[in-house]
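All the exercises in this workshop are built on plain-text protein records. Instead of coordinates, the fold is spelled out as a row of discrete tokens. Once this layout is familiar, the rest of the handout is easier to follow. The record below serves as our worked example for the rest of this section.
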Amino acid sequence: MSDRLQMWIDGVGGYMLLLADRINVGQAMASAQVDIPIMGDISRRHAAIKRSGDEYIVEPLSEVKLNDQAIDGPSLLRHRDVMTLGRGVKLQFTQPHPLSTSAVLKIVSRHRTEPACDGVVLLADSLLMGPKSNNHVVCSQWQHDVVVYRQGSKLLLKSKTPLFQSDSTQPATSIKIGETVQGEEVSFCLEPIGRA
């Protein structure tokens, strides 16, 4: 399975899911080969974010500010911290759910990723989607939460209501990449993102 996935959620938006423990952030150009390519005035490889247990550490490879303070070495990220890369690319780091070590990055400046997405999920153990404000992805029209969680190299599903993939009449318990997961109010698909 690819360690870079794009999740399209009907009526909600698109999210990049990154499964690696270390990800690189940099300029959106083919030669950069970064995990989060951003269209902005930043270095080809500007910063790295590393997951260590339930903590995340930002490593500046070029100019990085954390909550408007310049950093010159690895720094611990905390819920709602804002990283500024270069002169103005701003990313907010959140760990919204207390029972999950996964985190979300949102671009809070005018910049965007390539491919464009509404947020980046650093998928550690689980991804919670649903109507609650502390979910990784808030799906306000849904009645119930859907949990995507990792087990080895597989992505599995938990939901109060049955979810199906393809033409199967059996509820889905694992996600097949490239096939839509559907339920009464839920519809989403995961696709691999290649590197240029």
Q: What stands out?
A: The chain has a mean pLDDT of 94.
